[in-house]
């Protein structure tokens, strides 16, 4: 299972993960597009017809596939020109609505459906407790807000040494807790008591 940020929510990454037998736990992303217009989510995709259906029950048929692997769907201007919801669909002068759908979008849709399950919600919540905390520590305590060196090789070396030091600190804490469970518990208890006052 891989828990990823919104920046990694792309069809290519989702396809790679699912095809490798790895569950892609991806977050909610806000609909893109102009304010006041229907987003892509307002349209229903029909697998059997290979078309999109608009909220006014008009088909957007497949036209062609672009070089980037996106399938283009267009509405018919004769239907859209007399539509009462036209102002919510498009600002196009030709009165046509266009929708792009990636060839590997079904992989994203699987992740989107699983996003509502308790299992995936739990794993996504853990991301902020683990990954985000590591990045925050690296920035605030280990000087990763700005790099000391220039060039990809030198910056990579700095990052690797920083995270190696962080891992050693983590391992030392684990070993200390394991070796001294009584002292760790007493220290934690005293800290809680002090915080009350």
Label this structure with key terms.
elongated, alpha+beta, 197 residues, 7 helices, 5-stranded antiparallel sheet
Model description:
The chain is of the alpha+beta class and 197 residues long. The protein has two domains: 2-113, no CATH class; 151-197. The chain is 48% helix and 14% strand. The protein is built from seven helices and seven strands; from the N terminus they run βαβββββααβαααα. A five-stranded antiparallel β-sheet has the order 3-4-5-6-7, with no helix packed on it. Strand 3 and strand 4 form a beta hairpin. It is elongated and about 75 Å long. The mean pLDDT is 83.
Can you give me a brief rundown of this structure?
By secondary structure, the chain is of the alpha+beta class. Helices cover about 50% and strands about 15% of the residues.
SSE blueprint:
Blueprint lengths: L1 E2 L7 H9 L4 E2 L18 E3 L4 E3 L5 E7 L4 E5 L2 H4 L5 H4 L8 E5 L2 H10 L3 H24 L10 H28 L1 H16 L1
Parallel strand pairs: 1-2
Antiparallel strand pairs: 3-4, 4-5, 5-6, 6-7
């Amino acid at each position: 299972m891989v828990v990823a940020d919104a920046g990694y929510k792309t069809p290519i990454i989702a396809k790679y993960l699912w095809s490798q037998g790895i569950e892609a736990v991806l977050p909610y992303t806000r609909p893109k597009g102009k304010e006041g217009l229907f987003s892509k989510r307002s349209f229903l995709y029909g697998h059997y017809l290979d078309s999109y259906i608009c909220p006014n029950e008009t088909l957007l048929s497949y036209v062609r596939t672009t070089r980037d692997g996106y399938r283009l769907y267009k509405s018919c201007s004769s239907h859209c020109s007399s539509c009462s919801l036209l102002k919510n669909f498009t600002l196009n002068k030709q009165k046509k609505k266009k929708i792009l759908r990636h060839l590997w979008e079904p992989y994203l849709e699987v992740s989107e459906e699983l996003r509502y399950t308790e299992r995936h919600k739990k794993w996504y919540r853990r991301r902020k407790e683990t990954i985000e905390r590591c990045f925050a520590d690296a920035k605030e305590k280990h000087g990763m807000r700005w790099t000391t060196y220039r060039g990809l090789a030198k910056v990579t070396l700095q990052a690797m040494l920083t995270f190696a030091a962080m891992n050693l600190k983590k391992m030392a804490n684990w070993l200390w807790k394991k070796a001294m469970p009584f002292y760790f518990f007493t220290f934690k208890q005293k800290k809680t008591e002090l915080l009350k006052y």
